[in-house]
TrEMBL record:
Its EC number is 2.1.1.354. The keyword Repressor does not apply. This is [histone H3]-lysine(4) N-trimethyltransferase. Keywords: Metal-binding, Methyltransferase, S-adenosyl-L-methionine, Transferase, Zinc, Zinc-finger. The gene is SMYD3. InterPro entries: H3K4_H4K5_MeTrfase, SET_dom, SET_dom_sf, TPR-like_helical_dom_sf, Znf_MYND. The lineage of its organism: Eukaryota, Metazoa, Chordata, Craniata, Vertebrata. It is an enzyme of class 2 (transferase). Residues 3-245 form the SET domain. The keyword Methyltransferase applies. It catalyses: L-lysyl(4)-[histone H3] + 3 S-adenosyl-L-methionine = N(6),N(6),N(6)-trimethyl-L-lysyl(4)-[histone H3] + 3 S-adenosyl-L-homocysteine + 3 H(+). One of its GO terms (cellular component) is nucleus. Residues 1-20 are annotated as: Disordered. One of its GO terms (biological process) is methylation. Residues 48-86 form the MYND-type domain.
Length: 437
């Protein structure tokens, strides 16, 4: 099949990818395996380090006690990639290096093993930008510490990093600092079906994709394989874009994040028109300001899994005159989402459903194109309806989710198949005589 995308020079943005012909909404555009990837430290106990599946009980590598696998098959398959890493991990115990250090080390191991690398088909690691020259001194300092950590971590396996790398690795990637900078700017977060982070990976060809705050493509994962899919109709020669960040956020916040993390100023149409900022700030500021101010603390409580405290904090904000703030308000939406999350963890199903339902019309407004976040939110609400025995509502919500997920994930993706199964279940339940329900 002829490739649907090609590399080009995007005016004002440098390298980019564009469509070679017409691409319709919902079409797959490109799929890629990573040059290297690893499970995130925070998911390391719940996810198989080979196939990236979430599992209740995992076998632990007896040597490093860090890597975990579904079964001996996954463990055996992972060994050639894990062997060198295992030795490095052991040498640092009980310390565990950060995700970017572990990923950079895996990249080095891959590069030191000569082979054909399809992941670099369109763009090589050598060509990746490090953005070191445009970084603030503090950021550079942070990266220097990571680079020092990388050298310490690799000591057992690649004691003379710079020298060994000179033999096989292009000059621009040799310095640990430049490599770490390239990795942190260009790696993608690998997420599971619920959009929870499970790993990090470098997909060189797709690092060419530029950002837009209303992108025409989305990326979804199947294990560690990355799929790029169109969420709008795309014309021949049109640039393909993804969003590097959460799109439901104010222009000023998006711009700040893009500058700090990715070192560019966004000039997309949404940024120029400050699209939806007014809607996101709707309501009386005196009423929504307490919500805005409470969010950092609520986020901390969420990170500590103190769900009771999260729920108390959220409901005290939403109950008294939370009604005075329109549901479209961004801060109210975030507080409502946190309340939903807390209720689900505390098994307060009816309350969870009330919060979940409040968010749906707002998600519809803020995600004009099919988006995985919107699809997954509908699935969460659908599951709550199902759990509470509301079959008609379940059917309706799952149907809306399906319309989105089949575009963003495609009909063969496990998440779409799972959803199809759930819809069939509902249909069967609805067709039973009501007395037996
Ligand atoms: Zn596995
Ligand atoms: Zn190990
Ligand atoms: Zn923008």
């Amino acid at each position: 099949m002829a490739p649907k995308l090609e590399r080009f020079t995007s005016p004002g943005k440098g390298n980019g990818l564009r469509a070679t012909g017409r691409i319709r909404k919902g079409e797959p555009v490109y799929s890629a395996e990573p040059l290297a990837c690893c499970v995130s430290n925070k998911a390391a106990r719940q996810v198989c380090h080979h196939c990236f599946t979430r599992c209740e009980s995992l076998l632990r590598c007896s040597q490093c006690k860090m890597a975990r696998y579904c079964d001996t098959t996954c463990q055996k398959r992972a060994w050639s990639g894990h062997k060198r890493e295992c030795k490095c991990l052991r040498s640092l115990l009980p310390r565990i290096p950060t995700d970017s250090v572990r990923l950079a080390a895996r990249i080095i191991f891959t590069l030191l093993t000569p082979s054909q690398r399809s992941s670099e088909e369109l763009y090589t690691l050598e060509e990746h930008e490090s953005h070191l020259s445009s970084m603030s001194p503090q950021k550079r300092e942070g990266l220097s510490q990571l680079a020092a950590m990388l050298q310490l971590y690799l000591q057992q396996e690649v004691p003379n990093l710079t020298q060994e790398m000179t033999l096989v690795i292009p000059p621009s990637c040799q310095e640990p600092l430049s490599l770490i900078a390239k990795v942190t700017c260009n790696c993608f977060t690998i997420s599971d079906g619920e959009l929870q982070e499970i790993g990090v990976g470098l997909y060189p060809s797709l690092s060419l994709l530029n950002h837009d705050c209303r992108p025409n493509c989305v990326m979804v994962f199947e294990g560690t394989k990355l799929h790029l899919r169109a969420v709008q109709d795309i014309s021949p020669k049109e640039e393909l874009t993804i969003s590097y960040i959460e799109t439901v956020s104010l222009t000023v916040d998006r711009q700040r994040q893009l500058e700090e993390q990715y070192h560019f100023t966004c000039h997309c149409q949404r940024c120029d028109s400050q699209d939806m900022d007014g809607l996101m700030l709707s309501g009386d500021e005196a009423a929504w300001r307490p919500m805005k101010e409470a969010l950092p603390r609520l986020g901390e409580l969420q990170a500590e899994f103190d769900w009771q405290a999260v729920l108390e904090g959220c409901s005290s904000l939403l109950l008294p005159d939370g009604g005075a703030v329109p549901d479209e308000n961004l801060y109210k939406l975030r507080v409502t989402d946190l309340a939903l999350d807390a209720c689900v963890h505390l098994a307060h199903w009816e309350e969870a459903l009330r919060y979940g339902e409040k968010t749906l019309p707002v998600y519809r407004q803020y995600y004009p194109d099919p988006h995985p976040v919107h699809g997954v939110q509908l699935m969460r609400v659908g599951k709550l309806h199902h759990y509470l025995g509301h079959i008609e509502e379940t059917m309706d919500t799952f149907t809306q989710a399906y319309e989105i997920i089949k575009v963003t994930h495609g009909s063969a993706h496990p998440l779409t198949c799972d959803l199809r199964g759930k819809l069939e279940e509902c249909r069967a339940e609805l067709s039973q005589p009501s007395s037996s329900r």
